[in-house]
Amino acid sequence: MTFSNSSVEPDTLPAVEEARLTSVSPRLAPCVALQQMWRWLLLTTLALLFPVTNATLAVWQPWFAAGVGGLGAMMIVAGWLEAKRRAYGVREHDVIYHRGLLIHRTQVLPLVRLQHVETLSSPIERAFGLVRLACFTAGGRGADLLLEGLPARRAEAVKHYLLSRLDSDGDGQPPPSPPPSASG
Q1: Domain extents for the chain?
Q2: Which of 58, 80, 88, 137 could form a disulfide with 52 if both were Cys (CB 3.0 to 4.6 A apart)?
Q3: What is the chain's Cα-based Rg?
Q4: pLDDT tens digits along 8-51
Q5: What DSSP element (H or E) covers 82?
Q6: CB of 68 within 8 A of CB of 45?
Q7: DSSP 6-55
């Protein structure tokens, strides 16, 4: 038996950029902004109220807190804008998730590697009607793909589709239905 490993012409490969992606829920942007706001409000309050014993540093403390608050405001706006750019796609053989504002990140998870799917939501996400869909592969500690910003009904539909693919027999078709029982 001879080993063969032929080259593949790059121009013939399917382009991920050509995949049709669906934007996540528009409610994700205010949800992310609210989550960011709570974090930065806590940090700004800590910067303002942290006890400073040095008189020279105490004079600068309000300015430092204002700087932390200003940085927080910029991060809230950046989070809002980044959340509005997120998109996902579910294809026959993979799931795609695109995110990022300055640094774009596109994750592709082949469905043949998928082992487990679960839904997650924080109280803030539930208030906005949003769910995260975590996709796991074998051997990983955490989710290999985390789809954020899906409406609850859409997340359940995608989850059920992915779980049905797990139950398929490898050819993309669901397994045959069990035969009816003789007593039934």
Answers
A1: 28-83, 88-166
A2: 58
A3: 23
A4: 888 887 777 778 899 999 999 999 999 999 999 999 999 989 88
A5: helix 55-85
A6: no
A7: ----GGGSPPGGGS--EE--TTHHHHHHHHHHHHHHHHHHHHHHS----H
